[in-house]
């Protein structure tokens, strides 16, 4: 169905409500980084990443201490954010680098049909092929990508001049029309310019070393390069906010700053562990939301789309369209609701091409205020990808040249090289070895998720209760993994290069 016809159809199915949030419809600005864990902001205590503009949004509105992504990978996490639905509810869009079925309606289209001027710059939904699904444009909206930097501050940083592209968008906006803009930074996604963090004045001692990474100068340097890109992202956020202030729209703009999934290091990104799914999140709307709030309750990034629609006064779902399952956060933000209840779910299927026959590594998880329970549906598979890959037809690469669900990096290279060192072996194994079917972690005392409590007798009742909640919710919401149709996830196409791996013993 052409996009124009879809928008017209949507317009026929919803109506604008005049309620508390729609007296003066706000602009909506989503600012999303690429691969940033929750601890990597100044307000969260980072010593290596200075983020004054993220902190400003947090202080002007609400800082969320337990915001959970619906997936630890780019495409499915962004699809979930756009639709307000968990990845297992989105067919091909629920896996990485596939397609995006048109029947799953995205909030930018709904807002556009309601009179909003919409657009995006940088990285919208992706990677993947949205055109093969019949979409005429990226699900994030019309692209504003023409403006480029005259000189990049570091080789790994995108040449997209995000702020200038936002300025072009504002210049195109019809007079008095509210806008919805997606600012999708490509930082701190790899690759990085090696040593860029130190060149920016940081020292190795500044790096905050997560407990799942070994102590080594190359790893500290890699973390500094990561932090340098976070700072660049924050600077572009600041330039964007100044434009809003210059046109007098800062107070009536609902600004949301977050990330899609966790840091691109072993046992973080592409894993349902805490560092893979726990996101930074700050929301400000001075015209409606009181400043200085800290929200401790667990929220999901699937809650953002329903929140945007509620702020705009858009009623959804329309008849015959898949509903959003996320929650409207405005009652909590405006003080109408005292506390939020419940936890948040996350999902992983295929990330990169990392296993024989392009197989996935299916995970589902439930994150409560205190615990994280993970179900690994195929524990016989390699979670980080097979250790070896064919470099040419019939020619196997080195014994540890695989692990393609971990982004290539100096950190991974160093850990592979030193994997047999006594201080490294346990952490290397935690990153790449096979895992049990059920894992349980106390994320208040073990956010690195290194002490599995699933078989601990003192946590038996917690495991059983959370496992039942997870399984019941997956069944209720139609996850194919809970039925005989689970292998449908292996059939969804990948529109990126596919590697060749040896056939595993268990597949004989």
From TrEMBL:
Residues annotated as domain Sulfatase N-terminal: 26-314
Alphabetical list of Pfam families matching this protein: Sulfatase
Residue segments, region Disordered: 480-508
Record-linked Gene3D superfamilies: Alkaline Phosphatase, subunit A
Protein name: Heparan N-sulfatase
Organism: Blastopirellula marina DSM 3645
């Amino acid at each position: 169905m052409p996009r124009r016809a879809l928008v017209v159809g949507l317009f026929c199915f919803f109506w604008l409500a005049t309620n508390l949030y729609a007296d003066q419809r706000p602009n909506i600005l989503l600012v999303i980084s690429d691969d940033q864990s929750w601890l990597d902001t100044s307000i969260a205590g980072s010593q290596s990443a200075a983020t004054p503009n993220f902190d400003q949004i947090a202080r002007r509105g609400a800082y969320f201490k337990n915001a959970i992504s619906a997936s630890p990978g780019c495409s499915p996490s962004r699809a979930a954010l756009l639709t307000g639905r968990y990845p297992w509810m989105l067919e091909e869009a629920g896996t990485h680098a596939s397609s995006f079925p048109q029947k799953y309606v995205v909030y930018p289209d709904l807002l556009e049909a309601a009179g909003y001027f919409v657009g995006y710059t940088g990285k919208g939904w992706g990677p993947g092929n949205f055109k093969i699904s019949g979409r005429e444009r990226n699900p994030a909206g019309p692209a504003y990508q023409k403006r480029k930097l005259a000189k990049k501050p570091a080789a790994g940083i995108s040449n997209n001049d995000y702020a200038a592209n936002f300025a072009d968008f504002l210049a195109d906006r019809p007079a008095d029309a509210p806008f919805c803009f997606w600012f999708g930074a490509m930082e701190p996604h790899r690759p990085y310019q090696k040593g860029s963090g130190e060149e920016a004045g940081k020292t190795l001692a500044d790096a905050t070393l997560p407990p799942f990474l070994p102590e080594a100068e190359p790893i500290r340097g890699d973390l500094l390069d990561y932090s340098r890109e976070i700072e660049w992202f924050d600077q572009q956020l600041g330039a964007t906010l100044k434009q809003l202030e210059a046109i007098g729209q800062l107070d009536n703009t609902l600004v949301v700053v977050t990330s899609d999934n966790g840091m691109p290091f072993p046992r973080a990104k592409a894993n349902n562990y805490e560092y893979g799914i726990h996101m930074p999140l700050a929301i400000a709307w001075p015209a409606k939301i009181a400043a200085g709030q800290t929200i401790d309750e667990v929220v999901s990034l699937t809650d953002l789309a329903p929140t945007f629609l509620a702020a705009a006064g858009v009623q959804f779902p329309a008849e015959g369209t898949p509903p959003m399952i996320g929650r409207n956060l405005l009652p909590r933000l405006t003080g109408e609701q005292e506390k939020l209840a419940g936890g948040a779910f996350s999902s992983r299927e295929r990330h990169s091409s990392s296993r024989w026959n392009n197989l996935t590594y299916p995970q589902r998880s439930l994150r409560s205020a205190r615990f994280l329970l993970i179900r690994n549906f195929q524990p016989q598979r390699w979670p980080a990808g097979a250790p070896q890959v064919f470099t040419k037809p019939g020619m196997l690469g080195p014994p540890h040249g695989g692990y393609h669900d971990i982004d290539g990096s100096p950190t991974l290279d160093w850990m592979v090289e030193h994997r047999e060192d006594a201080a490294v072996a346990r952490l290397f194994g935690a990153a790449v070895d096979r895992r049990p079917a059920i894992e349980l972690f106390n994320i208040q005392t073990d956010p690195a998720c290194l002490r599995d409590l699933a078989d601990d007798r003192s946590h038996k009742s917690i495991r059983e209760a959370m496992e039942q909640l997870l399984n019941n919710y997956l069944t209720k919401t139609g996850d194919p993994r809970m039925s005989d149709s689970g292998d449908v996830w292996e059939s969804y196409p990948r529109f990126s290069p596919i590697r060749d791996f040896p056939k595993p013993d268990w597949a004989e």
